[in-house]
Amino acid sequence: NRQLRLKTRPEGLVRREDFDLVEQPVPALKDGEVLVRVLYISMDPTNRVWMRDIPQYLPPVAIGEVMRALGLGRVVQSRSAQYHEGDLVQGVTGWQDYLVLHENANGYVRLPADPGIPLPTLLGAAGMNGVTAYYGLTEIAPVQPGETLVVSAAAGSVGSVAGQIGKIMGARVVGIAGGADKCRYLTDELGFDAAVDYKAADFKQQLKAATPDGVHVNFENVGGEVMRAVLSRMVIGGRVALCGLISSYNSTERPSDDFGVFVMKRLSMRGFLVLDYTKTREAVQALGGWIREGKLKAEETVAEGLENAPEVLNRLFDGSHRGKLVLRVAAQ
Ligand code: NDP
């Protein structure tokens, strides 16, 4: 059984030398175990994240551990009543030829011997990546018919499905990808309404031209400059499904923004303006009640004199006030 074990944490792009290729005999099965011949390994951007010793949604792969990866294999020996020889199994296979799997292990799906879908598709559009796109566009940032959806890394696995789901849902879909060939693929083969090449010098102008009504939904896979450009095109009330930030996965430094934590911790952040609030009367009543009951302390710093307005305004920025800063301009 050949295994690739993480030897050193890569810096930048992953190198072969970051892994030990070890060869080990396939272990004898115990009761309840099956031996799975790994057939396909899913190559995922998150694999690169798992190699990094940073806070994330799963423990990083430890040095010396078989590299974690999703994959698909076929049962070649079974000492389990639940799995039979020939069954297909999908789940974490790791970077190795064979996997010994216990029948009670969590996170594995048994598929019929002939699932009727090409096996690589089960790892992509009909598997985890397709589900990612579907989840993002149905629950995280639903897109409505007629709205403009922008998808980054649009020619990749998640992005290509996200864009096509957007079309199925009746959105106007704009894909962002690197290079003219990928852009043509998006429009000519996948039916996107427009495609924008983020590697082109006039990327921002292209994006602007492709989104004349602004962007209602951004399915974001890239982050960094690409995301910044899309955010600048968002309409009021737009939605962002923050799926991934691949542009930072190889970097050795922590990115200057904190968007990664939004993905890892499934955070939501929603900008708002009080002027949109429709329950102002109710809020003022509640606040006044709490103040009268002594539940809410109201503090003001009162400065004097209309002529002092400019200097007093600056106190907001040097912190030399507490609570609400007001200017008294006349006696009551
Ligand atoms: P892809 O098949 O999309 O491959 C990655 C693509 O990203 C590349 O083909 C490349 O396309 C583009 N890319 C790479 N580096 C950069 C860069 N620096 N700037 C701009 N584009 C870049 O991979 P996946 O579909 O598997 O993953 C896409 C995204 O979805 C990733 O961010 C991944 O982490 C995320 N993801 C999130 C999940 C979740 O549960 N939140 C689940 C699965 C994936 P190009 O040629 O156009 O540059």
TrEMBL record:
Keywords: Oxidoreductase. PANTHER family: ALCOHOL DEHYDROGENASE, ZINC-CONTAINING (AFU_ORTHOLOGUE AFUA_7G04530), PROSTAGLANDIN REDUCTASE. Gene3D superfamilies: Medium-chain alcohol dehydrogenases, catalytic domain (3.90.180.10), NAD(P)-binding Rossmann-like Domain (3.40.50.720). This is NADP-dependent oxidoreductase. Residues 12-327 form the Enoyl reductase (ER) domain. Its EC number is 1.-.-.-. InterPro entries: ADH-like_C, ADH_N_2, ER, GroES-like_sf, MDR_fam, NAD(P)-bd_dom_sf. It comes from Rhodanobacter umsongensis. It is an enzyme of class 1 (oxidoreductase). It comes from the Bacteria. One of its GO terms (molecular function) is oxidoreductase activity.
